[in-house]
Amino acid sequence: MAAVQFLKQAHKSPDIKAIGIYTLTNFFGKGLSFLLLPLFTNPKYLSPADNGLLSLFGQAIIFVAPFINLGVLQSASADYFKLGKKEFNDFCTTGFTISAVMTAFTFFVFFLCRNFLSESFSFPSMFIWAIPLAAFLNFCYEFLILLIRNRNDATKYMKVNMIKIIIELGLAIILIVLFSWTWKGRVSGILIAGGIITLYAIYFFISNGLLSGCIKKKIIYDELKYSVPIIMMQLSMFCLFSSDSFFLAGITKNNSEVGIYGMACVFGSILITFSSALIQYMIPKLNEILSQKIIDYARIKKQFLVYTGLMFFAFASLLLSVPLIYHFFINNNYWPGIRYFYFLSSGYFFWAITTFLYTFLLYFKHKKILLILACLSLVISLFSNYFLIQFFGSRGACVSVCCTYFIVMLFTIISTKKYWKPILHSAEA
Description:
This protein has one domain. It has 18 helices and no strands. The radius of gyration is 21 Å and the shape is globular. By secondary structure, the protein is an all-alpha fold. The model is unreliable at about 1-5 (pLDDT under 50). Helix 2 (about 15-35) packs parallel to helix 9 and helix 2 packs antiparallel against helix 14.
């Protein structure tokens, strides 16, 4: 009876409902993508080489994003709770201006480097303008989602994400299947969906007065100063998540192998999707707790235990289910990637734990620690990827990812001990 009563109370809890909405929303996109995998892995529509190009397109956006964001999103997450309305409006106006200017600059750099990108990674000419544009559209989407999340509007969060996903994948199906656009159909779907959501984001910001502020030199200066560790952190994340694909493409010169490896990354990244869903819910709660004069470490401990338990359950479930999905739903050309999946998913589990700990460093803006961790992550990732991929190819790439994430997790645990020690010793779980 006690268990039944607990379930009834949990069902009525607004927190449980919010977690459910965030999780369902994040997995809605993944779920549709997985349902479409038999289509997207069918050589009739997309070859492994096409999927290799799409993998590089996605990873390039991750590389460009920190230069366009310049730490604005990270600052906005914490400053939403710190600044007054007028000051936050000034911050939003200045942040959008910074991002727009950096997008134009990034396009100029890509244009100058177009021959190098084409020769080294087989970048098509479309990528030169599509990557900076996609990164800016993603910035607008992330800024919108961040504010909706901080307002605890889980329903609007769900609507915006689902509309974006339906438009993006719906257009991809039409353009790939009916018009035979291959990888161009997928990229076009991403850009059009991002453009529509950006138009709504601009409407949302204007209607809430968030773009009515002034462009402040002090905010620009503060963001540029804060952007150094943030850019390094984002670059280190690029190296952790994406440099393996670029090294693999550059060393093997085989986009088909990159496509097979990229498919294993897609399945491993389910853990990242689940982690992101939980973190989307937890970050506003954690920031609110940390903003109090007396920090309630027992509440943080409860959040951490729930988060870690759910992540471990998701990890174990993936290890059991993904081989079956590969066997029954994925084209046989991609089967060699199953051996990469086990290492990749283990690495992503280590990163999920690291992500929770990073919350403290980002909230308190520990620039020095962030910069040190970023540099360590970047160096370890680049060296391990280069040498292991050079000698062992795709197998070396997945082993590098797993080992690098584990080492980064250890460094992060050491760097945040002043926060997790009182959490462990708090009175209640």
